[in-house]
Specification:
about 500 residues; alpha/beta; Rossmann fold; seven-stranded mixed β-sheet; four-stranded antiparallel β-sheet; about 50% helix; elongated; binds adenosine-5'-triphosphate; binds magnesium ion
Length: about 500
């Protein structure tokens, strides 16, 4: 204002003195809590806690409220509209909270939140109460707010689409550790591991590790890998970030995505062996040193593939346990795969993937959990024959569960068990027939014979994509010297 009336320098002087004078006369102080601090990607935890605290404690006095409705959620929570005010009382002290926002004159180039407005809550109190407000009241508000949001928190499922931003829906998967069928001892071990993890904040700090834990879930399709991730999220009330690696174009994008995840979350990369040819890429390079350049078509194809996805194994490894992971804590990282043998050892070494969990075909113990969940029975005269059949046949829990589901209103537990026995017998018969087929054609065109011929092709350098991977694997094992940067960096990490 003063600059308009006076020359600029004089205006500044007058403004300074007026502010000082007002400061002496005004007995109140204000403290602002911003929604985003500096250039942080995450909403400030203090802001969120205050929002919850205020909506719970004093929204009655507010006329203009903002409804925060989460999709599919039956409940809403109300917070103050912009430029509203409420008062709170604490040990006889009156505190005023106002919600406000700063609208930037220039739109920021990169908008990381909704719009570029900078929202904040402003606390006003008497100067004489400053100490008690900052040392007692504010911590009390943050603590209460945290507790409320923790209680009302509904886990979210985030996915990355074509961009480097996460989109989310409410996570409402019914799978829990109770419904998860697996050997009780194994289940107990995993539960213990998870509970130890969430209680070990101080321990991780003490030993200088960032507070995260990696799980590798492997096993055939339909053995409960995805169900286990859902059960983990439900148990810990964590969000899930389902990272689709195929839509991440390069290492920078991956890093952006990983920093955009919040704490108390599970970062999931499903089918790590297929979602990106990470292992293949390292081998491609090695293969490239061999006779492949002779084949121009082949070379072009590979180059195209490389350009399409600049994400590398070393990028993934660095993002996961390098510098970037230090900015976040309390995170689980879960990889799933159907083919653990195809994964690069660097990816799954201990320290990155701390715990390897095999989910396998249904055993009798697993079946008992399913029978209890699906049919409400804990024992039956048919159980012994099912136990015997399960020992002789490989059937996934998904298939067993499917057979245990009543197909019509007339079906009861016994008929469902009989269905399962029939299915198990069929599976057993099929397996026997298949084995016999392989046996009878052995020497002519058996499975193993096929593979051998592929390897032979590959060695001659005329092979297709998959076969060349075999070559590469072999050359890698024989101590190939043309190693890629990926391995270097992972070595550096360890
Ligand atoms: N261990 C299990 N306990 C309970 N239900 C299971 C289990 N395994 C499979 N199921 C049932 O089978 C369905 C498929 O399982 P799930 O999606 O967890 O398999 P998956 O191991 O992730 O398979 P894929 O490798 O194909 O992703 C689930 O919806 C669940 O109903
Ligand atoms: Mg799955």
């Amino acid at each position: 204002i003063f600059q308009q009336w006076f020359p600029e320098e004089l205006g500044n002087h007058i403004e300074k003195y007026v502010r000082r004078l007002l400061g002496i006369l005004n007995p109140y102080i204000t403290i602002s809590f911003y929604e985003y601090n500096g250039d942080e990607y995450e909403r400030s935890e203090a802001y969120i806690a205050i929002e919850r605290y205020l909506s719970n404690n004093s929204s009655n006095g507010v006329k203009r409220l903002k409804a925060n409705v989460v999709r599919n959620s039956k409940s809403i929570f109300l917070s103050m509209e912009d430029y509203e005010e409420v008062t709170d009382e604490f040990e006889g002290i009156i505190i005023t909270w106002a919600s406000s926002k700063i609208i930037p004159q220039q739109r920021a180039l990169i908008a990381y939140n909704d719009g570029d407005e900078k929202r904040y809550y402003k606390l006003t109190c008497h100067r004489k109460d400053k100490d008690i407000i900052t040392k007692v009241y504010v911590p009390h508000v943050l603590h209460e707010g945290d507790a409320i949001s923790q209680k009302n928190r509904q886990p979210k499922l985030y996915t990355n689409g074509k961009s480097t931003r996460w989109g989310h829906i409410l996570f409402e998967h019914p799978s829990t550790f109770d419904t998860l069928a697996m050997h009780p001892e194994k289940k107990k071990e995993i539960l213990n591991d998870l509970m130890t993890f969430i209680e070990s904040k101080d321990y991780y700090k003490k030993v200088g590790k960032s507070w995260k834990r990696g799980y590798l879930l492997y096993g055939p399709p339909g053995t409960g890998k995805s169900s286990m991730i859902a059960a983990m999220a439900n148990l810990l009330n964590y969000d899930i970030y389902d990272l689709e690696l195929t839509s991440v174009t390069d290492n920078t994008d991956l890093r952006k995505l990983l920093i955009g995840t919040s704490s108390k979350s599970i970062i999931v990369i499903e089918d790590i062996d297929c979602s990106l040819d990470l292992t293949g890429q390292r081998k491609e390079k090695k293969g490239g040193n061999k006779g492949e350049e002779k084949n121009p078509v082949h070379k072009k194809e590979k180059e195209k593939k490389k350009k399409g996805s600049k994400l590398t194994l070393s990028g993934l490894l660095n993002s996961i346990d390098g510098l970037w992971s230090a900015c976040g804590s309390e995170r689980l990282i879960v990889f799933t795969t159907n083919h653990v043998e195809r994964l690069d050892p660097a990816l799954i070494r201990r320290g990155r993937m701390d715990k390897h969990i095999e989910l396998s075909y249904c055993c009798f113990e697993t079946f008992k959990v399913l029978a209890k969940n699906y049919l409400d029975i804990e024992s039956h005269e048919l159980f012994p024959s099912i136990s015997r059949l399960l020992e002789e046949t490989n059937m996934t829990p998904a298939d067993v569960a499917e057979n245990l589901m009543p197909k019509s209103a007339e079906e009861n537990a016994e008929s469902c068990l009989k269905d399962l026995i029939k299915a198990l017998e069929n599976a057993k018969e099929e397996a026997t027939l298949k084995a016999a087929e392989v046996y009878s054609s052995d020497g002519v065109l058996s499975d193993s014979g096929d593979e051998e011929s592929q390897d032979a092709d590959a060695e001659s350098g005329e092979s297709g994509d998959e076969e060349s991977q075999d070559t590469d694997r072999e050359s890698g094992n024989s101590g190939d010297s043309g190693d890629s940067g990926a391995e270097d960096s992972s070595d550096g990490d360890s």
